[in-house]
Amino acid sequence: MYPSFQVKPMQYINQEFNYTILESLAKKFKEQGFVKLINVFDNDFIKYIENKIEASINAPIDRYQTGFNRIAFDLFVADKIVDSLMQNSKFRNIMFRITKKELFYTQGLGFELEKNKSTGFPWHIGTQSFGYQQASDFGCTIWMPLDEINTKKQRGGMAYIPENIISGKFMYEDIDPSIVRYIKERYQNNDNPQLEDYLQLRDGILNNPYMKVLLDHFAVEDDFAIGDILLFNKNVIHRSIKLEEGALQRRRAFAMRFIENHSTYDQERALNLEFPRQLFNYPGCSTFHLDVCGQDGEIIAKSRYFSNHDNRHLFISK
Ligand SMILES: O=C(O)CCC(=O)C(=O)O
Ligand SMILES: [Fe+2]
To answer: I need a labelling partner for 86 at 20 to 30 A (CA). Which of 3, 15, 195, 236 fits?
Structure first.
């Protein structure tokens, strides 16, 4: 007889979130645009992600990413483990009950901050990650730190603004498009716009001294144990928090982006992401927004870009 040896299947989700808990999380998510969930992912899943991130993230290439020690966009394409998380009924239930949306997984990203050095991203919204869907379409992120975050010790997490106080919606709807339009019009008028003009506007609107007074005042910063996550919608203004002195050398995080399943492609918005990169001739961090669809108005989740739509669709049978 051979000893009966079986590999334990990955559970992904560590605990039951009952109806009452999910409804109270949903209420918070609706009000604030974000919610912290405790003890969601199991150790096997976290270890898997950690190993893969370690092997995939690299030194930054784009100026906008230099706040990180290592970073990667477009991770986990056709990854069996991540695909089966999207198929997991407990996971689907959590995502649907809290967001009240049927979601489609688009992208995975990895981030690493180095102690006392990396500043990460300043106040921002998901201009790049959600820059190919209509401004009004729903999108959200699961942010999953891979190192413990203690706000009273080393910090190194994120800060975020409740959407019922200040929402970042105006950035998608008005500011991002008008910044590109301003640069374009100056270019057309032979007014010689400079990369610096663009960068100051792109990063400056949410980080100018007066806006910072408000954002810093209303910022929420949480502790995270390994397995805890932050779920936040695309309108939540957020920033990285520096990892301060202490035992941890670096803080890593994995982010998963989702869009509402019926979101459509906004080609002008996607091309707007490219315009400054072409004009000022610097590399972008991702071409996902160009590759994902070819036609304006196309349903993104049905695009030929995704080889297996069912693996990414958090389908809910009602
Ligand atoms: O991990 C970080 O510091 C930044 C993460 C972030 O901005 C995001 O996931 O949108
Ligand atoms: Fe972000």
So the answer is: 236
